[in-house]
Amino acid sequence: MHILITGGAGFIGQILAKELLNDPSHKITLTDIIEPPIPKGTKYPQNAKPIKADLLQGADNLVDKSLDAVYAFHGIMSSGAEENFDLGMSVNIDATRTLLEALRKTCPGVRVIYSSSQAVYGQPLPEVVTDDITPTPQSSYGAEKIVCETLINEYTRRGFINGFTLRFPTISIRPGKPTAAASSFLSGMIREPLNGKESVIPIEDRSFRSWLCSPKTLVHNLILTLSLPADAVPPHIRQINVPGICVSIQEMMDALEKVGGKDKLAFLKEKGDPSLIAILKSWPTCFDNTQAISLGMKRDSSFEETVRDYKQELEQQ
């Protein structure tokens, strides 16, 4: 299977590519505005081709008739899109439309797995969000994602692509450095202390809850979507809320203490950031994932398990 991954230099693009490159039947093209690295530790790195490209300049050089599937991960994250409206609109919407047009013309019917977000929702919301709740985003990032979700629906309804939109929970724990995502601290408050560094929690409310998914579980659900039947969801309603678990700041701190030791809590600093709080409090905190689970997707068993997995990976480095 020939698979294109846009945003291939990013964290999700890299962990997905690493898993796919352990299967000799996959040929992977990784693209980003910088040349994406080929993930280390894969069984078949020779099956990966990195390409430096800017989707705003066109996608024809990335798309050919041999493509079987596309993972669209490119984009500007939440606080970055809020800070720079023009950049968010061009990268998150215009680049996606450019990609879809190239696919429509060159390989119609190709499977497209688009990465969306829980940021498409805004208040007021019920305690548990179901698939029947109409998204009303309260951020530029969420609004841009809704526009692209509508494009995926329409291009699929017309038969131009075979699209699926996956609304991701916040992915935690991400390795590496903090990002421009408003939710970046939800990885940093575990990652930094386990690496002996300080992390700032931008909301002074330990009861604040977030909807989280581990990288390992996300990759499982991403790969599962490659084989979903085309009619698994209606042709004009392609969005699926990816399973997550609801975790409070206090529960995350408890997991850090239990796995890493009480001394790690000293690296956490709580300092409210009004601009981030406004974004964070607009997001839902709990979902009914009946649809996703019925399609074969899975959720994490606990956040403590996620922290243990991350600590184990650190020790193996």
Summarize the structure.
The chain is α/β, with parallel strands linked by helices and 317 residues long. The protein has helices spanning 11-20, 78-83, 85-106, 140-157, 185-194, 215-226, 249-260, 274-280, 290-294, 303-316; strands at 2-6, 27-32, 48-52, 69-72, 111-117, 162-168, 170-171, 199-201, 209-213, 239-241, 245-248, 268-270. Strand 1 (2-6), helix 1 (11-20) and strand 2 form a beta-alpha-beta unit.
Can you put this structure into words, describing what you see?
This protein has 317 residues and is of the alpha/beta class. It folds into 2 domains: 2-169 and 214-241, NAD(P)-binding Rossmann-like Domain (Rossmann fold); 185-211 and 245-285 and 301-316, UDP-galactose 4-epimerase, domain 1. Helix content is 37%, strand content 17%. The chain has helices at 11-20, 78-83, 85-106, 140-157, 185-194, 215-226, 249-260, 274-280, 290-294, 303-316, and strands at residues 2-6, 27-32, 48-52, 69-72, 111-117, 162-168, 170-171, 199-201, 209-213, 239-241, 245-248, 268-270. It has a 7-stranded parallel β-sheet with strand order 3-2-1-4-5-6-10, sandwiched between helices. Strands 7-9-11 form a 3-stranded mixed β-sheet. Helix 1 links the parallel strand 1 (2-6) and strand 2 (27-32). One of its GO terms (molecular function) is oxidoreductase activity. Pfam families: Epimerase. InterPro entries: DenD, Epimerase_deHydtase, NAD(P)-bd_dom_sf.
